[in-house]
Amino acid sequence: MNKANNTETVESYRFHHIDTNKCRKCTSYDCEEACFRGIYHVINKDSEPKCIVIEDREDRCIKCHICTTQCKFGAIIID
Ligand code: SF4
Ligand code: SF4
Fold this sequence. Notes:
The protein is built from 3 helices and 5 strands; from the N terminus they run E-E-H-H-E-E-H-E. The protein has a single domain (7-78), classed as Alpha-Beta Plaits (2-Layer Sandwich), CATH 3.30.70.20. The strands form 2 sheets. It has a 3-stranded antiparallel beta sheet with strand order 1-2-5. It is globular and about 30 Å long. It has helices at residues 20-23, 30-34, 66-70; strands at 10-12, 16-19, 40-43, 50-53, 76-78. It is of the alpha+beta class. Bound molecules: iron/sulfur cluster (2 copies).
């Protein structure tokens, strides 16, 4: 189920969903540090930051929800 509040800017992977519009305001990229499984990578840090899920790593997720807690913009949703 997709519980994102702005579905137009949500990029969905198999069970991760990222509202990349929220990432544009981000300067701390907490998702990268929070996920000890190395699932996230933030691209375009010098212009319009955007978090992506490294697709072949998505299955490493143990749904601990550290990332959803650490992202202060609430950009990450995990089914
Ligand atoms: S997912 Fe959250 S912490 Fe990561 S870049 Fe986007 S807004 Fe920043
Ligand atoms: S729930 Fe845990 S393992 Fe999954 S992406 Fe978030 S921090 Fe990484």
